Amino acid sequence: MARETNRHFKFDWITILLFFFLVGFGWLNILSASHTGSSLNYFDISQPFGKQIIFISISIILIILLLAIDAKFYERFASVIYLISMLSLVGLFIFGKNVNGATSWYSFGSFTIQPSEFAKFATALAVAKFVSDLNTNLNTFKDQIKVFAIIITPAILVLLQNDTGSTIVYGAFFFVLYREGLPKHYLNIGVSLILIAILSLKFGAIITSIIAILVALGFHFLSKKKTRIHYTVLVLIAAIAVSFSIKLFYNNILQPHQKDRISLWLRLEKDPIKLHKMKKTFAYNLNESEKAIGSGGLTGKGFMQGTRTTGKFVPEQHTDYIFSTVGEEWGFLGSSMVVIAFVLLLLRILHLAELQKSQFSRIYGYSVAAIIFIHFLINIGMVMGLIPTIGIPLPMFSFGGSGLLSFTFLIFIFVKLDSNRINEW
Amino acid sequence: MRQFLLFISIIVVGLIFISRLFYLQVYNSEAHSLFDDNAIRKVYDYPERGFVYDRNGKLLVANQPSYDVMVIPREVEPLDTLEFCALLKINKDQFIDKYNKARHYSPRLPSVFVSHLSKEDYAVLQEKMRKFHGFYIQKRSLRSYETNIGANVLGDLGEVNNRTIEKHPYYKMGDLIGKQGIEASYENTLRGVKGIKFIQKDRFNRNIGPYKNGEYDTIPEPGKDITITIDETLQAYGEILMKNKRGGVIAIEPATGEILAMVAAPTYDPNLLVGRDRSKNFTKLYNDSIAKPLFNRSLQGVYEPGSPFKLMNALIGLQEGVISPSDIVTCYRGYHYGNRFMKCHCAYGTRNNLVAGIQHSCNAYFATVYRKILDRNGNASEGIDAWSHHAKSFGLGEFLNNDLYVGQKGRIPDREYYKFAYPKTFYSTYTISNAIGQGEVATTPIQLANMAAAIANRGHYFTPHIIKHIENETLPDQFTKPKHTSIDKAHFEPVIEGMLQVYRRGTAASLQVKDIDICGKTGTVENFTVVDSVKMQLTDHSIFLAFAPKDNPKIAISVFVENGYWGSRYAGKIASLMIEKYIKGYITRTDLEDFVLKHSLEDEYEKPYSGKPFSINRGAVYQVVDDKEYASLKEKVKKLENANKLED
Predict the structure, then answer these.
(1) What interface predicted TM-score (ipTM) does this complex get?
(2) B156 and B179 in contact (C-beta within 8 Å)?
(3) What does the longest C-alpha to C-alpha distance in chain B come to?
(4) What is the dihedral of CA B307, B310, B312, B314, to 10 degrees?
(5) Integer Cα distance of B451 and A110 in angstroms
(6) Which of A270, A331, B287, B343 has its CA 20 to 30 A from that of B19?
(7) Per-residue pLDDT tens for A65-82?
(8) How does DSSP assign A404-419, residue by residue?
(9) What is the pLDDT of residue B447?
């Protein structure tokens, strides 16, 4: 009996408090961004803020369930959960409902479910399960292929449904695999590819090649570790090839709207007429959200007092652009507080993950932190104009049932696993 | 090391986000003002401008509604330009031109697109306005003049310019502001304060309701009505008399300093500067650089005062104790000083005391007085300072600091002034022209009228002002406290006696008005002009200064008629007529009236610009106006009389 009463106090209350703080503050901002008119019924389920109350209630029930289930269940049934999730993604091609060009929804009456949201924690469980297996060695090519397959399958499925944002989220697993011993050259290749792509789009292939040559030679001759010259030359040739072919990729593979977003972000577009057109169309959101945030000043205009929020100047403000409401109404102080809350939550989860005795729990915890981090990075980065426009919600904050429940799954499975670590002896 | 990659990434991203927020919200953020927030539409509610009444309660200026089409270029969407242009009665080029101009001023602030629509055009346009995004109609109130006199007094309204908007953010593009006259000097009183409504917009630029339920909205404060000191009848009569002449007339009530009439000639109908034709008419008036109708000669015209200034020298002489009223100066058809000579009209050997000196306007007498004043201590520099001090105590040589929008200092020279011309030695003879009001002395008509008022009051005056009453306000002390001159009261009587004799037996003997003891002084002043850098002398100015009646004076007046030849030829007649009109309400000296109405000086003004040689003074002939003009002036005078009778 003593063990039973103790159990409640083993949950990590810091994580739980931060979660509820973000959910609660998020709801206030959804309310501000979506209410219309003067009469206000908080439970009006025809309005986003009313629906979100239902989602939060469901989320609380879900939390109780997740914490009640035995911790061993998740590890044992990881593969099954993953399989079900993948099937639900495949099912979209047959039963899916098209919203804004993405076929990523199942529709049940007035409620819709987005299975790609749930695929995130399912994939995290599967990766944790596979990598923690004693027979798995990430240094072998065979196992690398296997783990990539686990990750890439859902990524490709959501990409085929035109949900680019969700696809990028699976990049989060790179952090996990790297932590668990993926060879270093993956990191080098990944970072170099991104750098080369950005540099050659911005400055052209020739300048990028020259930079690549200088860096490679620098490494070759200054590094203490002796590398063979033909290895350096090989890397260089690859780099130059990439820098020349990136334009080809950009022009032929990317869709026009993706090209526009990148060209705006890298300030590639010089034609004022085209720029003006961009500002009227997709960059409109970005422009308005930056303006809304900037107009908040140090302390903000006050809850429900944002003129740009009230005037619905930022489309989709209660979903992906919710952070602009925080910026306008709560100012620098309020929005910094949200950023700090996210950073604290992430660091807390990371810290707990490192404390786990079970490898499964640690890898899962790491995945949770990495997935939330990617959402945080892309969403707030985009709303403030630091990153090209990619549609992705702000965890716990943005309106949306699937998103909220998916993050509830992600975080509370980990809270449960963590609470069990003392029993792991 | 591997476990730190994500850890460090999280912290770095957190820091980047907070710096970016700092940049957007604190460093780069303009102070949040509702006026700069384009999510909030500002709608102004213009109060009605105050009315203007004359001293007898006659309405002079009222309002009429007017409609401007405004544009906010950023919000304009493609429209049927042809239809729009047809509605506004402009062509496509004008449309593009106006649009670009507005865009250049500011894409996000409203500019006037077309101003002053007629009521009919407004009615048609209003129905279709919803089709034209980014355009809206602003109702304003325009002036409506109930009279066609007093343009220089009443002034006019015009659109504010960018410089004013920068200095006074109260004004927005297209607002009207007083440009001249009382519209300018009582702008804040007449204007009131416009109200403002803040309306929350959505991103489609639709109104979605008052911002914060109208918490910050203000209601307009209506402008206050004012009553001015002008007597409409006297003003109108003065303007008729000054027709076809150039110059200024100012009449003041000595007991209060109230300006009864302020005539500047030539003038114009104030209705010309209202409405859509305003800019066209204004340009026309502005470009008349010879007659200068916009130049308020009664306030801005700086003339040598001539003989009326002899009164000042007499007063200073008495105050300084250098003469007594009975002292005699013998005139030998002029005044010898050193080897030079100043001419006079007196017969050879005339013996003048003070009264006779004024009565005959004897140059020799006043040259003697002036020299005595300056040489009193044997030091002409000290003498001229004392002299200058006395003259300035009459409000000469300085701004009057009153409520008129324009003014000039005039000039009363002192020791400082002459230091440049005579750095080493300075004798009273150097500036002997000041004795007869020429040389370096210069005054405006209003200053001279004020001097007449100070003499009439025997030693004090009230700053001449135009405001009689403002709704719920009292006039400032500056207009109700008397200002005392440095001349003792006793010294005024002999001078006033001299002025009375001017009318009884002197230079204005032909201008007497039955039953009114008028005290006056004529003036005739040489003057020059420069045309194409050739200096030439013109026919003398005709100047007159008077007050009446002698005891308990009701009116003090100064009249300047440019190139009118001598004092009683035009200025004296006009002064007598106006005095009679004001005191009696009707005219007995119709002979004087006919003379003034019948004669024009336009030919005289043409002379220097004709390019032909011309003769002045004795060479001036009487120019008679044509019958039509005479009949029309006569008609106006009749109307004025009838209107007056009706009131009685």
Answers:
(1) 0.91
(2) yes
(3) 126
(4) -160
(5) 92
(6) A270
(7) 999 998 889 999 999 999
(8) HHHHHHHHHHHHHHHH
(9) 95
Peptide bond into B549 cis (omega under 30): yes
The residue ranges of every structural domain in chain A are: 2-182+276-424, 188-253
The length of chain A, given as a count of residues: 425
Give just the sign of the alpha carbon dihedral B466, B472, B475, B480.
Answer: positive
Tell me the domain boundaries of chain B.
40-228, 232-285+299-647
Query: Distance from A379 to chain B by nearest Cα, in Å?
Result: 11
Provide the whole-model pTM.
0.67
Which of the residues B3, B13, B21 would you substitute to probe the A interface, choosing the one with the greatest number of A C-beta atoms within 10 Å?
B21
Query: How do beta strands B52-53 and B226-228 pair?
Result: parallel
Query: Mind listing the pLDDT tens digit for each residue in B191-248?
Result: 989 888 888 877 666 777 787 777 778 888 888 999 999 999 999 999 999 999 999 9
Q: Which residues contact A272 (CB under 8 A, 6 or more apart)?
A: none
A contacts of B31 (beta carbons < 8 Å): 297
- Chain B: give the shortest CA distance to residue A332, in Å: 6
pLDDT band of residue A368 (cuts 50, 70, 90) is: very high
Q: Which two tokens stand for residue B206?
A: 């639709």
Query: CA angle B296-B297-B300, nearest 5°?
Result: 75
Q: At A5, is the pLDDT very low, low, confident or very high (cuts 50, 70, 90)?
A: very low
Please name the fold of domain B232-285+299-647: Beta-lactamase (3.40.710)
The single residue listed with the structure tokens 């009443």 is B154
A301 part of contact set with chain B, CB < 8 Å: yes
pLDDT in tens, B435-444: 999 989 999 9
The CA distance from B380 to B386, in Å, is 10
- Residue A366 forms contact with B (CB below 8 Å): yes
Q: Provide the CATH topology of domain B40-228.
A: Penicillin-binding protein 2a (Domain 2) (3.90.1310)
User: Which element (helix H / strand E) includes A352?
Assistant: helix A322-355
> Quick one: pLDDT band at residue B32, thresholds 50, 70, 90?
low
Q: What are phi and psi of B410, to 5 degrees?
A: 70, -160
pLDDT digits (tens, 9 = 90+) for B291-317: 889 899 999 999 999 999 999 999 999
* Torsion of the alpha carbons at B599, B602, B606 and B612, rounded to the nearest 10: -20
Q: What is the Cα–Cα distance from A368 to A418, expressed in whole angstroms?
A: 12
C-beta atoms of A347 and B203 within 8 A: no
Cα separation, B180 vs B446, in Å, equals 17
Q: Where are the beta strands (DSSP E) in B515-636?
A: 519-531, 534-548, 555-561, 599-600, 623-624
Reference B447, options B482, B378, B397, B489; nearest CA is B397
